[in-house]
Amino acid sequence: MKNVWHKRLQLLTGWITLFIIGTDLFVVSPLLPSIAEQYQITPSKAGWMVTAFSLMYALGAPWFGAFSDKWGRRKMITYGLIGFMIANVITGLAPTFSVLLGSRILAGLAASMVTSSVFAVTGDSAPSGKGGRWLAIVTSGFLTALWTGAPIGTVSAQIFGWQYIFYTLAIAAIALAILNVRVWPSQKSDLQKKPAVPKMGELGRILLDVAVTMFWAGAVYGLYTFLGTGLKSVNDFSSDLVAASLIVYGIGAIAGSLSGGRLADLWNIQAVSLFSLIALAVALALIGVLFSTWLWIWPLLAVWSFAGYVSFSSYQARLAQKYPDRLGTAMAWNQTAMYAGITLGSVFGGWIIKIWSFQALPLLCGAFALLGALWYLVRMKWADN
């Protein structure tokens, strides 16, 4: 019974840790007007905060993931959370925008130390046959931050001021550093014998595999980035209806993530990942055709997010299954691939809306998902599985 409760505490710790990291990223957008006003800069320049965080996260994750395979997950999580705490304190105290931007660079690097290591230690510690489920549960912490971060930021900034959000995140980070040290095991000695950086052939296989996630992210976030814009311009939704739509999306995403992990453990993990990618492509195509129809929009948003996150969580479980000795590296590159896909989706999405119309965007994103499914088939057929 004691071991059961300890396992539950591990899952809860991983969930909360990723929720705090995700909140730090997603809470910033609604704060940008207040930050721009305080530092007397334009909102677009204030948006560099998000770019700096995301870029440093994407660049840092592969290195820190490889180091976690060599030095230990628990150590990387602890140091990352301490750096995360320092970065958020500086964010709250920053006297100039330059200092503020520097703090977000540090926060992005610290977050990249934490996230991939949490995924890896979760995969390491999961009971036999439950790896997919465990990864899905901790992933849902990050996803919860996706749709709660904006309202938390808006309400907290109005009551306390935007700086206090980052002070709260700093306090949470140091508490979580202590908790993570207590609940996770030290690194296995056989993993420590491996070199920190994998050989080129091994790294090449990982990169080819995580390309699936890049296509997935382009499909999901290419539309999600501009969803609010489309709901207002095409459907004439009010701000309240847009917020409700995002909540529907968030609930579907969490349900999909949890279901994807369970399905990956119960059924053929490759089939679950592949067919959910195909379902994502179909859902996006239907959104493109039926977006302006009020009766269908919320059910389609729920199906889109559900299928998308069944795919993501089941594919993470697939990577954990395929690269048990390089789990930190694989998860880190998977995160980088996700950010690359988000960037591609956003760039192409903006271009599509400008050249054609919003309703062409879901069709483009559906094509991204279909390309991901085709690439997955290629990897299943010719790669060394």
From TrEMBL:
Residues 10-384 form the Major facilitator superfamily (MFS) profile domain. It is found in: Cell membrane. The chain crosses the membrane at residues 12-36, 48-67, 79-99, 105-122, 134-152, 164-185, 206-229, 241-259, 271-290, 296-315, 336-353, 359-378. GO terms for molecular function: transmembrane transporter activity. It is a multi-pass membrane protein. One of its GO terms (cellular component) is plasma membrane. InterPro entries: MFS (IPR011701), MFS_dom (IPR020846), MFS_Efflux_Transporters (IPR050189), MFS_trans_sf (IPR036259). Pfam families: MFS_1. Keywords: Cell membrane, Membrane, Transmembrane, Transmembrane helix, Transport. PANTHER family: PURINE EFFLUX PUMP PBUE. This is MFS transporter.
